[in-house]
Amino acid sequence: MKPANKVALITGAGSGQGKAVAMLFANEGAAIAAVDIDEGAARQTAAEIAGLEGRSIALRADVSQDQDCAAMVAATLERFGQIDVLYNNAGIEGDIKADALSVENFDHVLAVNLRGAFLAMHYTIPHMVKRRSGVVINVSSIAAITAIPGPPGYAVSKAGLIALTRTTGVMYARDNIRINCILPGPVDTPFYQRTTGAAATASGQMFVASPLGRPARPEEIAKVALFLASDDAAFAAARPFIIDGGWTTGSFS
Amino acid sequence: MKLAGKVALITGAGSGMGRTASSIFAAEGAAVAAVDLNEAAANETARQIATQGGKSFGLHADVSNAGDAEAMVAQTIARFGRLDVLYNNAGIEGEAAFLAQFSNEAFDRVIAVNLRGVFLGMKAALPHMIQRGGSIINTASMAATVAQKGGAAYCAAKAGVVALTKVAALEYARYNIRVNCICPGAVETPMLERLAERHGATPSQVFANVAAIGRAAAPEEIARVALFLASDDSSYATGSTFQIDGGSMLG
Fold it and tell me: In terms of CB atoms within 10 Å, which end of chain B has fewer, N or C?
């Protein structure tokens, strides 16, 4: 795309990266379905887009729930008639102080972070196949490719998103649907502020630093999303893209 | 314009992805030093940019030669006063032979151009980028992660470029110099035509099944990624490998 006249469905759009993506895409002219489990936050994002004279609807959905995902896709199609970009961003860190082997915690994180993205794709991709056009961006994490101590559900869910991206990416490339994922490093969001304290305890100052010496601003990840959604990335398919300020390049010292 | 006021040096700018990137960077406002082993081809790229109203000049360099690498950077700075973007794109396919039959000279030549050339380019450019930061883009290849029969030198050199990219990113992040590489799959360039000829076929016949997308890339589809990496749109990306290969089951 250039986002004008395109429609983007963004989950986790009530705060952080998801909100930054919603605002940037709207600013570029896209209509936005702003989805969040926190309906008030979704409405706030939609209101800010309306303030820019952009087009948006706010939708509540718990992406781990089949019916919620079906409903958010149906509502977006009813309102805007099409979905050009699906941005699977909704994610939770889970209870980072829980027992690492807690089954309940593991299941819950997997349900939101991995099953949620799968469900959104389940309901959106058939529509994209019919139009022979679409972009899906899954938000993974460098947690998928590093080894940070803590309850493993988060890293496992994010690694699962890479596998989901790769397998579906090669399946649907010939339908002109490009499916990629972003692996952000630390991003200055409410999520990051909630998790850095605990992670810093576990692994020293490692988590808060990156070779660039700062976490990303949400807008810096949003610009990568815009690139991947655009025709500038027309030959990018089924791949993970690490955007981490050099975090995973190597040893810090 | 994404590169207004910037100066970019692009190697292998006489054909393929390098020429296309030169043209796109210039259209986005950059002054472009178009470097190629083939001086006439470099000059032609610069002439095409001038015709479009852009700023450019052509320059001969063998990137495997340390003196040439230093001279290309020095001449760019003499001409345009600064260097913001280095696109180490020059590369050769070399010969294809199984490892036991691979000539030592051919191996050394591929490593010299494709890997040592990237090292020398960065070594020459980094001291000039330290003051105000910059972006370096290295052309690696899908061959860095997916082995090819006959690719002893090419695959090893390109894997080396990925490693070199990470080292440079780690060392120079503090100076706000970002270093990333692109791993293209099959791209419709003169190199691809030569490779296809070895198989007695057209590029589209040989490479249609390499990418899940079902075709080779247009040079512009790689050059646009280079533009993203050169610009501030990628301000938090460093040390990363951008696999732009149309999707592959491997790698």
Answer: N
The CB density around residue B41, as the number of other CB atoms within 10 Å, is: 20
Residue B137 falls inside a structural domain? yes
Tell the burial category of A122 from Cβ atoms under 10 Å away from its Cβ (0-12, 13-18, 19+): middle
Instruction: Inspect the interface and report whether the beta carbons of B244 and A233 lie closer than 8 Å.
Output: yes
**Count of structural domains, chain B:** 1
Could you say which of A217, A224, A235 has the minimum Cβ distance to residue B213? A235
Q: Is A123 a catalytic residue?
A: no
Among the ranges A36-50, A91-105, A144-158, which has the highest mean pLDDT value?
A: A36-50
Helix A103-110 and helix A153-172: axis angle, to 10°? 30
Task: Tell whether the torsion through CA atoms of A112, A164, A135 and A131 is positive or negative.
Answer: negative
Structural domain harbouring B154: 7-185+218-244
Look at residue B164 and tell me if it is in a domain: yes
Could you tell me how many CB contacts below 8 A there are between chain A and chain B? 119
3-state SS, A38-88, equals CHHHHHHHHHHHHHCCCCEEEEECCCCCHHHHHHHHHHHHHHHCCCCEEEE
As a whole number of angstroms, the distance between CA A24 and CA B81 comes to 34
Looking up residue B137, the CATH number of its domain turns out to be 3.40.50.720
Q: Please give the model's pTM, rounded to 2 decimal places.
A: 0.95
What confidence tens digit (pLDDT) does each residue in A55-95 have?
999 999 999 999 999 999 999 999 999 999 999 999 999 98
Note whether B169 contacts A246, CB cutoff 8 Å: yes
In a domain, B250, yes or no: no
CB contact under 8 A, B242 and A236: yes
- Say if CB B49 and CB B101 are below 8 A apart: no
| Token output for A91 | 């994610």
